[in-house]
Amino acid sequence: MEIKKIAVIGAGLMGSGIAQVCAQSGFEVNLMDVEQAFVDRGMSIIDKNLKRVVDKGKMSAADAEAVMGRIKCFLSIPEAVSDVDVIIEAVFEKMELKKNVWAEIDKAAKASAILATNTSGLSITEIASATSRPESYIGMHFFNPVPVMKLVEIIRGYATSDATVEVIKALTGKLGKIGIEVKEAPGFVVNRILVPMINEAIFVLQEGLATPAEIDEGMKLGANHPIGPLALADLVGLDTLLNVQQHLYEEFGDSKYRPPALLKKMVRAGCFGRKSGKGFYDYT
Ligand code: CAA
Ligand code: NAD
Fold this sequence. Notes:
This protein is of the alpha/beta class. It has helices at 13-24, 36-55, 61-69, 77-81, 95-108, 124-128, 162-174, 190-206, 212-223, 229-236, 238-252, 261-268, and strands spanning 5-9, 28-32, 71-74, 86-89, 114-117, 137-142, 151-156, 178-182.
């Protein structure tokens, strides 16, 4: 199957990054969000990232302009998806929202389209049940920041066809990423390991064992992590992190996955990390 055009639904942290790498790889991209301000914010993140690459002499200004020119913005799902070959969804990590979005996509997408969700760990099978074509449905899990991180987890739902897996494996390669095929389970592979580690760092902070800077320094110098777990939490988004951890807790029913009260309190206070300006560190 030849892919020419890709729709990305949700223009937040991940959607903007996914749209950027798709456009950088030569695909036409339809980027959709619910408000003009949100697509504008997504486009300005892409513009800033490309300028950084141009400033480093790794891309010409003309090429960066061509990348921006391949991305068109939409506020309506039917308009964004009706003429594309692949749809990648990156809206908030909420099952009901994702199912509603996919039911709408299903009505407007071409019969041949491949449907992919960037969920951090929700059931691919359950999201696919909102569509009439679960065989064309798959998990395509990118990592943050998308332009930098090499991995894509490729996750089959119960009914995902081999043909769908092959199309997404090939697309992953064309985007310059490395895919690993993993079985469906809460949090898949990487988040099943990574998110509880971040969660434990928040318990360490909550118990007053060390400051955020000391915890992060500890994991950078003592475990060779590129950034500490609390800085990573701020990068991922504390709201997203809480949703992922809560899902692990609910699905496994094991108290080791419980989210700390401090994380819940910070999310309730609107401290979402970098994207809101405040998290374990201040970005204002
Ligand atoms: N967007 C695009 N490019 C970015 C970027 C961003 N937000 N942040 C940094 N970069 C680029 C820089 O331009 C730089 O590029 P060059 O090598 O071409 O010069 C490169 O990344 C390194 O950046 P810096 O030197 O400024 O900073 P750094 O050395 O701290 O690296 C990092 C930044 C790569 C993000 C590094 O901090 C890192 O690896 N952090 C951990 C990231 C991680 O673990 N992500 C997974 C999160 S979990 C997830 O995504 C799954 C989920 O479902 C929640
Ligand atoms: P985000 O909060 O930055 O962006 C989500 C975007 O979805 C927002 O712009 C919002 O306006 C938009 N949205 C909400 N409802 C919508 C709708 N009905 N139609 C279209 N757009 C809608 O979140 P994010 O960090 O980009 O996460 C998006 C998805 O990617 C989640 O499923 C998350 O779990 C997953 N993910 C996140 C990370 C991460 O590190 N943040 C990494 C991998 C996967």
